[in-house]
């Protein structure tokens, strides 16, 4: 039941291309869950507030150059430095809605040509999400939405490659939502998926580790 000792918060990850709607949908989802009385926090990766996050941010803004493998490992380190806080939040009953996670790490780096298995290796052992939702939109459609900023990866040809590598990461546990649907329709599907996951974690679904 709700008060069982192994009741915990759930780890819900949103993935997708730039301009897929992930960020605004994660905000909407968090406020909906709060209204429903769920204790929940919005997280995002990269977490630019840490020292590692500031190095990542400078790289993305084209203010610094880094070897492809070096930046890959920094993105991973940025998740590792939050790992124990993440686990303790979950165990204390707080759910986390996370805008990007290890799948972004693998999709973006392997889109540069790095080996997929090499990209996954530093992620092994991080907390595994209870739910991964992919907001599916083509790179062309995303670019039509406008608002690609000046950041390093916000280019059509690169986003096409990222979409391909995301597709190689899918498995049956992922939920794919058509990102071209009206905002309210996407929101409705997200709410239903998230609430179901929150309930199963309250009932004591065990925590697991990547990759699983
Ligand atoms: N990104 C994000 C990566 O390349 N690797 C990662 O591990 C993560 C989490 O960083 F283009 C890329 C994806 C995106 C950029 O992300 C910044 P936000 O969501 O725009 O802050």
From TrEMBL:
Pathway: Pyrimidine metabolism; dTTP biosynthesis. Residues 14-189 form the Thymidylate kinase-like domain. This is Thymidylate kinase. Its EC number is 2.7.4.9. Belongs to the thymidylate kinase family. GO terms for biological process: dTDP biosynthetic process; dTTP biosynthetic process; dUDP biosynthetic process. Transmembrane segments: none annotated. Keywords: ATP-binding, Kinase, Nucleotide biosynthesis, Nucleotide-binding, Transferase. It comes from Zingiber officinale. GO terms for molecular function: ATP binding; dTMP kinase activity; nucleoside diphosphate kinase activity. GO terms for cellular component: cytosol; mitochondrion; nucleus. The chain holds residues 39 to 250 of 252 of the full protein.
